[in-house]
């Protein structure tokens, strides 16, 4: 009798905790003419999502859900294959796991990132497309069905085409496959907004960050690039994350 009651109680608690959490839906779509291998990373010491890496062929879609609260990022790896040792490696944004799954690892820059902060209790979501760690694939985050601002965060242009020589990352065929941020390339405080340049006033845009912001005005081009306002949306929309929008 007691056991049954406990089972029923814990079962309903489980249902309640799932039902109460309005998880966010992330719908991935690959509009690139090439295959990408998206990756997910949950920030902090929280559990990772149901998948940390998957393959997305041209025109393919994939849907996943986040719990709430959730804080993390998504990106796309390109030029991936199995090497002669059976290790999965990518030409850009590799996560060094040796597998399609990233298992909590982050991306090796340069990488275009979609970043999310989804608070508990149905509060306002924060999201952006960031070029702070450089650029590899055009990307957009388009909330559908939310309330409030809900603008599309994006870097739809191919920044590789306007990438200055000193920031270029080239592939095996000599083509530019990604573009480093000046912070990643030169590791200088004025580009990384680290001390003594760690305030918005002492870390203005640079000639390098301007190349990124000119190409993609709706993405973060450097650490203190807050002027466009942060992207927010309420009501747990469906976030459509498109590669090559
Ligand atoms: C950016 O400025 C630095 C000096 O601050 C200069 O060396 C570099 O050539 C400039 N690069 C571009 C792409 O304008």
UniProtKB/TrEMBL annotation:
<comment type="similarity">
    <text>Belongs to the thaumatin family.</text>
</comment>
<dbReference type="Pfam" id="PF00314">
    <property type="entry name" value="Thaumatin"/>
</dbReference>
<protein>
    <submittedName>
        <fullName>Glucan endo-1,3-beta-glucosidase-like isoform X2</fullName>
    </submittedName>
</protein>
<keyword id="KW-0964">Secreted</keyword>
<feature type="signal peptide">
    <location>
        <begin position="1"/>
        <end position="23"/>
    </location>
</feature>
<dbReference type="InterPro" id="IPR001938">
    <property type="entry name" value="Thaumatin"/>
</dbReference>
<keyword id="KW-0732">Signal</keyword>
<keyword id="KW-1015">Disulfide bond</keyword>
<dbReference type="InterPro" id="IPR017949">
    <property type="entry name" value="Thaumatin_CS"/>
</dbReference>
<dbReference type="InterPro" id="IPR037176">
    <property type="entry name" value="Osmotin/thaumatin-like_sf"/>
</dbReference>
């Amino acid at each position: 009798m007691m056991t049954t009651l406990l089972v029923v109680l814990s079962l309903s608690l489980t249902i309640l905790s799932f039902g109460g959490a309005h998880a966010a839906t992330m719908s991935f779509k690959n509009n690139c003419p090439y295959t990408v291998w998206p990756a997910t990373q949950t920030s902090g010491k929280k559990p990772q999502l149901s998948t940390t890496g998957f393959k997305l062929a041209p025109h393919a879609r994939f849907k996943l859900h986040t719990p709430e609260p959730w804080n993390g990022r998504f990106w796309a790896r390109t030029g991936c294959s199995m090497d002669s040792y059976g290790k999965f490696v990518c030409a850009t944004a590799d996560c060094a796991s040796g597998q399609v799954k990233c298992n909590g690892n982050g991306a090796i820059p340069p990488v275009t990132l979609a970043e999310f902060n989804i608070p508990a209790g149905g509060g306002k979501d924060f999201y952006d497309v960031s070029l702070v760690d450089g650029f590899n694939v055009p990307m957009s985050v388009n909330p559908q069905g939310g309330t409030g601002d809900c603008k599309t965060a994006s870097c739809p242009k191919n920044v590789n085409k306007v990438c200055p020589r000193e920031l270029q990352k080239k592939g095996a065929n000599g083509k530019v496959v990604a573009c480093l941020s000046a912070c990643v390339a030169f590791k200088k405080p004025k580009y990384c907004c680290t001390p003594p340049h760690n305030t918005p006033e002492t870390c203005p845009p640079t000639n390098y960050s301007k190349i990124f912001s000119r190409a993609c005005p709706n993405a973060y081009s450097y650490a203190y690039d807050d002027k466009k306002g942060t992207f927010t949306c309420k009501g747990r929309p469906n976030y459509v994350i498109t590669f090559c929008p």
